[in-house]
């Protein structure tokens, strides 16, 4: 598809959902611009009326692409996959495609929202044990699923949307001091994926808005 302008990603360096979109763009070889939205500064730049006009949920990411604005990272990833050439992010085989969606939804709906910044701000002082509990609960379900579906990557031997969701979630788990070693399949897949260039260039330590003390 020919495009007059590059997509614009409104995101935050450490946001899991923003990172997913960055990985998808990188895997597809799509050039894009970033418009950082600092979730902490000024009480949260996502809460401004200007940003609310882009994404009424006042979350990141929001992506301006092909004359429309999309939010919700899995919807963005699937749009990128359906409109851009390059490696498929969802397999052609219906069973594998369903497995990719199952794993992606387990992470994106069942684990990550429970450590979302808005949620842990509401939880307050108990945010660390809260986050650990729900990440462990999710990983206890994810590990046996991945044992069945994984080859080199989450579903077989091709990188998919499931892998795009897994790596940011493991990064979150490590931030919240979860022992990922309890989950050998998750750990193996994450280590393999972090060797791939698309996952390296999209990493939170290498973004325009990464603070100097967290920069790789």
What does it look like?
- The protein has helices spanning 16-28, 49-54, 73-83, 94-110, 117-123, 127-149, 161-175, 184-193, 197-201, and strands at residues 8-11, 33-36, 62-65, 68-71.
- The chain is α+β, with helices and mostly antiparallel strands.
- The chain has a four-stranded mixed β-sheet, covered by helices on one side.
- β1 (8-11), α1 and β2 form a beta-alpha-beta unit.
- It is globular.
- The mean pLDDT is 94.
List keywords for this structure.
4-stranded mixed sheet, 9 helices, alpha+beta, 216 residues, 4 strands, 7% strand
- Which structural class matches the secondary elements? alpha+beta
Name the poorly predicted regions. none
Report the biggest beta sheet as strand number plus sense, adding barrel if it closes.
4 strands, mixed
Please tell me how large the radius of gyration is. 17 Å
Q: What's the number of helices?
A: 9
Mean pLDDT equals 94
Order of helices and strands: EHEHEEHHHHHHH
- What's the count of strands? 4
Q: What's the oligomerization state?
A: single chain
- Report strand %: 5-15%
Helix content: 40-55%
* Terminus-to-terminus distance: 34 Å
- With strands numbered from the N-terminus, the spatial order across the biggest sheet is 2-1-3-4
Could you say which overall geometry the principal axes of the C-alpha atoms support?
globular
């Amino acid at each position: 598809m020919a495009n007059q302008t590059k997509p614009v990603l409104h995101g935050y360096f450490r946001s899991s959902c923003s990172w997913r979109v960055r990985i998808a763009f990188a895997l597809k070889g799509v050039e894009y611009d970033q418009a950082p939205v600092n979730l902490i500064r000024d009480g949260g730049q996502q809460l401004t009326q200007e940003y609310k006009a882009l994404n009424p949920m006042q979350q990141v990411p929001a992506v301006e692409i092909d004359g429309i604005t999309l939010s919700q990272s899995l919807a963005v990833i699937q749009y990128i996959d359906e409109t851009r050439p390059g490696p498929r992010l969802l397999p052609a085989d219906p069973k594998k495609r369903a497995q990719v969606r199952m794993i992606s939804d387990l992470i994106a709906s069942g684990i990550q929202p429970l450590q979302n910044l808005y949620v842990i701000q509401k939880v307050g002082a108990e945010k660390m044990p809260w986050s650990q509990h729900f990440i462990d609960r999710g990983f206890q379900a994810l590990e046996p699923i991945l044992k069945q579906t994984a080859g080199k990557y989450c579903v077989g031997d091709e990188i998919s949307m499931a892998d795009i969701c897994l790596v940011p979630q493991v990064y979150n788990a490590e931030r919240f001091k979860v022992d990922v070693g309890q989950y050998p399949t998750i750990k193996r897949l994450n280590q393999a994926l972090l060797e791939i260039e698309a996952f390296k260039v999209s990493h939170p330590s290498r973004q325009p808005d990464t603070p100097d003390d967290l920069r790789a």
